[in-house]
């Protein structure tokens, strides 16, 4: 393989494990994760919005990102 691109944390672990690859410093993309509900489902939208905010406030996101080795990712407030 001449080059690889992907989520930074797994590639950084591979490089740190003594592989013949190095991780370049610059980031070239950012993925915005979003939720979607049917347009006419106001109650559903409110529920999902509240659920996401509650999980963020509970620290759920940081716990699962840390457990998966991706703690460097950020959550938008």
Features of the shown structure:
single chain, 77 residues, mainly alpha, 2 domains, 3 helices
Short description:
The protein has 77 residues and is mainly α.
Walk me through this protein's architecture.
This protein is mainly α. It has two domains: 1-31, no CATH class; 35-77, no CATH class. The chain has three helices and no strands. The chain has helices spanning 8-16, 42-58, 60-67. The longest helix is centred in the middle third of the chain and has 17 residues, at 42-58. The mean pLDDT is 85.
Number of strands: 0
* Largest sheet data: none
Into which percentage range does the β-strand content fall?
under 5%
Tally the structural domains: 2
Q: Indicate the mean pLDDT.
A: 85
**Helix share bin:** 40-55%
Low-pLDDT runs of 5+ residues are none
From the N-terminal CA to the C-terminal CA, the straight-line distance is: 38 Å
Instruction: Count the DSSP helices.
Output: 3
Q: Return Rg in Å.
A: 17 Å
Order of helices and strands: HHH
- Helix vs. strand class: mainly alpha
Shape descriptor: elongated
Describe the secondary-structure layout.
Blueprint: H1 8-16, H2 42-58, H3 60-67
């Amino acid at each position: 393989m001449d080059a690889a691109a992907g989520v930074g944390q797994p590639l950084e672990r591979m490089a740190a494990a003594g592989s013949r690859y190095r991780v370049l410093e610059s980031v070239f993309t950012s993925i915005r994760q979003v939720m979607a509900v049917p347009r006419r489902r106001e109650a559903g939208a409110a529920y999902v919005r509240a659920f996401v905010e509650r999980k963020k406030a509970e620290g759920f996101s940081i716990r699962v990102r840390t457990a998966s080795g991706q703690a460097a990712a950020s959550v938008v407030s």
